[in-house]
Amino acid sequence: MITDHYNRNIDYIRISITDRCNLRCRYCMPEDVPFVAHDKILRYEEITRIVRILAQRGIAKVKITGGEPLVRHGCSDLIREIKAIPGIEMVTLTTNGILLQSMLPQLLEAGVDAVNVSLDTFQRARYEYLTGKDACEIVLAGIQDAYESGIPLKLNCVPIQEENTDELPDFFNWAKEKNIAVRFIEMMPIGYGKTYVSVPSEEILQRFFEAYPDAYRLEKSLGNGPAVYYSAPGFAGEIGVIGAIHEKFCSTCNRIRLTSEGFLKLCLYSGEGLDLRNMLRGGCSDEEIAAAIADAIERKPKEHHFAEGGLVLPGIGPEDADTRKMSQIGG
Q1: C-alpha span between 286 and 279 (Å, rounded)
Q2: What is the pLDDT, as a whole number, of residue 245?
């Protein structure tokens, strides 16, 4: 078991396998974001070595992210290899869905346990405006195929003031009609996300309860993350809210992140972490890497301070915040 200074059990890692993406979402990765050179991205054998080291010490759940993970050749092979590591109980994937329909058979064969698809609108023109690509129909077709396959499926929506909040009833209806978890994630003030107005999870719930007065909170957990889920009579699925800013869940945080360049991030806000790429390529043994990871996790910050807008606070201030864009960190 890996625990930090605050006795939180760290059993979940989110691994970005690429900083590249086939979309150019306005709040994440516009055209001017430079890509990392290929030789600086972790090789698959380096990623599996890290997971093997972590699995021996209590990490049991892995999320594969990007950028867009499916643009990297061999993603399904990596999932298969990670699934085979003793101690790993679950490997899931977050994708924008562009390549989901074409790659779904490979992913299912590799044994992926669940898929999260990011989708902020059902409208074709709005999708193209927000993402830079006319691909809404392709994404919806991929979601439908995944749904029909029976794999656990979640839809991730980032509500943006004056951009897509008029579609909230449509997202609610998806959860009503389909056995799917539709999740609303507060905009993170990271990189280009700082220029948009976040919609508090409280506002989402207010709209949901206004539409469905008999709605209720579910006590069970539906995954590895911090979402709180709700349903209503007659619903096949659920809606979830992730109030990362206004209702932060740091006291129960169970995760660490590995960027595509091999930097082990301890907290989404903080720049604190560990350069594992240098250790891997510098000849360090598994034992040395494991010891360095344990030491780093011991320094995992107590909480993030996104809501304070960069104010200097005891023990943390603007100089501690990570300056990477979200696409460089990983979802």
Answers
A1: 10
A2: 62
Strand order through the sheet with 228-231: 216-217, 228-231, 238-242, 181-185, 153-157, 114-118, 90-95, 61-65, 12-16, 255-258, 263-265, 273-275
Confidence (pTM):
0.88
Which pLDDT score is estimated for 224? 73
Do the strands 216-217 and 263-265 form a parallel or antiparallel pair, or are they unpaired?
unpaired
Task: Check residue 59 and give its pLDDT.
Answer: 96
Q: Which two tokens stand for residue 113?
A: 């346990």
Burial class (CB in 10 A: 0-12, 13-18, 19+), 323: exposed
Residue 199, Ramachandran bin (φ over 0: left; ψ between -120 and 50: alpha; else beta): beta
User: Has residue 312 got a pLDDT over 50?
Assistant: no
Q: What is the DSSP letter of 306?
A: G
Specify the long-range contacts of residues 315-322, CB closer than 8 Å, at least 24 apart. 316/270, 320/269, 320/270, 320/271, 320/272, 321/269, 321/270, 321/271, 322/190, 322/265, 322/268, 322/269, 322/270, 322/271
